[in-house]
Amino acid sequence: MNTGKMSFETILILVTIGLFAGTLSGFIGVGGGIIIVPALVYFLGLTQHQATGTSLFILTLPVVILGTMNYAKTGNLNWRYGLVIASTFVIGGYIGSKLSLKISPALVKIIFGFIMAYVAFTMIRSGFNLYKNEE
């Protein structure tokens, strides 16, 4: 992984990824896995493991505090659910990273793609069903 001086183009790509992922995260609650990981792999050439590690690092920083504050102010945040999930998310993140690093990046990429496709299909189908019921 290149840890030397970053070019202007690399910085521009990173800023674009951050703004897009942050905006999408604040809008629909996604960003790390769906935006940041694929963008780091395809636009900057990181391996699947490097992209996942970088995405997890980003999520450890207080990048979501303003979005969370907006949802909390409007009563759209369930703190109890969040605390339970966050506390177990730590354990799951540890276990998941150990498993991921034991298998090839290619297999991780395949599994990741299948999960994204399944989630996308399920969300689209659910959205159509809700949309039909609104008419």
Structure description:
The protein is mostly helical and 135 residues long. It has a domain at 103-135. The chain is 81% helix and 0% strand. The chain contains 6 helices and no strands. It has helices at residues 8-28, 32-44, 48-60, 65-73, 79-102, 105-134. Helix 1 (8-28) packs antiparallel against helix 2 (32-44) and helix 2 (32-44) packs across helix 3. It is globular and about 50 Å long. The mean pLDDT is 83.
Quick recap of the structure?
The chain is mostly helical.
Could you give the topology of this structure?
Blueprint: H1 8-28, H2 32-44, H3 48-60, H4 65-73, H5 79-102, H6 105-134
- Which class best fits the helix and strand makeup? mainly alpha
Choose one word for the global shape: globular
Largest sheet: number of strands, sense, barrel closure: none
The beta-strand count equals 0
Please, what is the average pLDDT?
83
**How large a portion of the residues is in β-strands, by DSSP E?**
under 5%
